[in-house]
Design a protein that fits this description.
Blueprint (H helix, E strand, L loop, with lengths): L6 H23 L11 H6 L7 H29 L34 H22 L12 H4 L7 H11 L3 E8 L2 E14 L4 E7 L4 E3 L11 E2 L4 E5 L5 E10 L4 E7 L18 E7 L5 E8 L13 E4 L12 E3 L5 E5 L6 E4 H14 L9 E5 L5 H11 L5 E6 L4 H4 L7 E5 L2 E2 L3 H13 L9 E9 L4 E9 L12 E4 L4 E6 L9 E6 L15
Antiparallel strand pairs: 1-2, 1-6, 2-3, 3-8, 4-5, 6-7, 7-8, 9-10, 9-12, 10-11, 11-14, 12-13, 13-14, 15-16, 16-17, 17-18, 17-19, 19-20, 21-22, 22-23
Helix pairs in contact: 7-10
């Protein structure tokens, strides 16, 4: 006899077989031996037998629920950001902003007829949102339509070095900062500067700039008169790249070199500059700084074949180029085409800078001795090698010399004056070493102080070889000079001849703070020898 089977009977048999196979498979995959409840055939085919536990499935379902909630939250934050609203938690969403679409009136709307108020209100709101979004986009650096002009863009003579110059300038920009000063809330000055040293433990750094930042009185353009006044209680703000600001604490300032050092809290990613102590005339240089918006200021020039003028310190080197206002880059670095710092701008309208060889010695003295002392020779001179070649030839023919430093000022009452040195004499050697530029002399004087070991608190004997062109003689002179911190003051003697037989002479003080003493002498008409007229330009 055959058993008749109906479709429902066959279906139940297949379900029982499938159920037994599923149970055995689950028991093998589940390490704990726990049997998972059986489900319908259609649902079991869709289930994933991961073999971990039922908790894993529930966690996956909860994660799916959370991901959908996160998507909803991100969409809401994106809509808020597109409308210009701030997010409550301050986090930044990665959702793509909606595209920029200019609103328009629906088709068929005639402007001449009255417009539905709802449509016009909606159109006005969309217009406001549209222009607000444009304004936000134009604040992005990559979309700014106009940037300040600079030499790398506008100077066609730099096309052949534009690409390498662009790279070194952007690299050097990492250590350039802007500085502003104020007294009682009133702005005083704006300068630039750059990082010199970092203390990673204290998270602070040292910034160097010109002391013009804290100068409260500029009485005379003549630096040798030492009439400038400075304030140590000035509030200084350091403007870092990217718009960040920090307070600057004055550590030290030196009047002769016009240097000021500030301690600033810094970012660990700050990069220190590389220095080069070799800078030559006609060398290409870039002057860097930051303006009041902390934007980079770039100028290209060359080192000039020229001596400093009579009002400048002789350790300066001149910059060839048009006269311009160096308000923003004053105190900023001067770099070469390799991106190394060769000096710091210590500006006059003509343009000049302090070579890095002197700057580094000054920083070494301050860091090791807490002060910067300098021997005061009482002399001001200029180099024969930087004169007009026609004049150099005349000197060579007459005196058989083409190197050395011509004395252009002798301080009244100084050891140099007492040794018989006069204007026009030529200093050829310092401590047995030949010199050809005033920068070399300054480096020699600072090296003596650096090698002293104590910052040189005592007086100093300096041996110089002088050529006296009036007598065609050479002599060795020993100058015993003081080594103070203050700026060197050159006291200029004055002789005033009266129409009568009276001769008035003025003997200036050796300090700018002391009054000058005037003595009136009565003589018959007297002509002084040329060698005695030792105070002149």
């Amino acid at each position: 006899m055959f058993r008749m089977t109906t479709p429902s009977t066959r279906l139940r048999g297949r379900e029982q077989q499938q159920s037994s196979r599923t149970k055995s498979a689950r028991n093998k995959l589940d390490g704990s031996g726990e049997q998972l409840p059986s489900e319908g055939c259609g649902k079991r085919k869709k289930a994933k037998l991961d073999g971990i536990s039922r908790r894993v499935s529930s966690e996956r379902f909860s994660k799916k629920g959370k991901s959908s909630q996160d998507r909803d939250m991100l969409e809401k934050k994106a809509k808020k950001r597109n409308r210009g609203e701030e997010e409550d938690d301050g986090s930044c969403s990665s959702a793509v902003s909606s595209p920029l679409r200019e609103p328009y009136m629906p088709d068929g709307t005639e402007i001449s007829k009255p417009i539905n108020s709802a449509i016009s209100d909606k159109y006005r709101d969309m217009q406001e949102e549209y222009y607000a979004k444009i304004a936000r986009q134009m604040k992005m650096p990559i979309l700014i339509p106009h940037t300040p002009p600079n030499c790398l863009v506008n100077d066609l003579t730099l096309l052949h070095i534009r690409e390498p110059a662009r790279k070194v300038v952007l690299c050097a920009a990492q250590f350039v900062v802007g500085l502003s000063s104020s007294i009682d809330g009133e702005p005083l000055a704006w300068c630039s500067g750059f990082w010199m040293d970092l203390d990673s433990e204290k998270r602070t750094g040292t910034v160097v700039t010109t002391a013009h930042l804290i100068r409260t009185k500029w009485a005379s353009p003549d630096a040798w008169l030492c009439k400038d006044e400075y304030a140590s209680d000035v509030k200084v703000t350091v403007h870092l790249r990217g718009g960040a600001v920090a307070n600057g604490c004055l550590l030290y300032h030196q009047k002769h070199y016009n240097l000021a050092f500030f301690r600033v809290k810094m970012d660990p990613s700050i990069q220190l500059p590389y220095f080069s102590d070799k800078v030559e005339c006609a060398q290409d240089i870039f002057e860097l700084g930051r303006d009041e918006s902390a934007k980079l200021v770039i100028h290209h020039d060359r080192v000039e074949y020229s001596n400093p003028n009579v009002h400048e310190r002789y350790h300066h080197m001149r910059i060839q180029g048009p006269h311009r206002d160096r308000e923003y880059d004053n105190g900023g670095p001067v770099i070469d085409l390799d991106g190394k710092v060769v000096g710091m701008i210590d500006s006059c309208p003509e343009g000049s800078f302090i070579p890095s060889s002197i700057l580094l010695k000054c920083f070494h003295l301050w860091r090791n001795f807490g002060r910067i002392r300098r021997p005061h020779l009482g002399l001001n001179f200029f180099a024969i090698s930087l004169l007009n070649p026609i004049q150099v030839e005349d000197i060579l023919i007459e005196h058989k010399i083409n190197e050395g430093l011509i004395v252009k000022e002798v301080s009244a009452g100084s050891p140099a004056e007492r040794c018989g040195i006069r204007v026009g004499d030529v200093v050829e050697c310092f401590d047995g070493k030949c010199v050809s530029t005033a920068v070399e002399v300054e480096n020699m004087l600072l090296s003596i102080v650096v090698n002293s070991g104590d910052g040189l608190n005592s007086d100093l004997d300096v041996e110089i070889q002088v050529y006296f062109p009036r007598r065609y003689l050479r002599r060795i002179k020993i100058l015993t000079v003081k080594v103070p911190e203050d700026g060197e003051f050159v006291a200029r003697g004055i002789q005033v001849s009266q129409p009568t037989s009276r001769l008035v002479t003025s003997s200036p003080s050796t300090s700018p703070s002391e009054p000058r003493q005037v003595t009136i002498l009565f003589f018959a008409f007297l002509l002084w020898p040329e060698e005695e007229l030792c105070y002149a330009y």
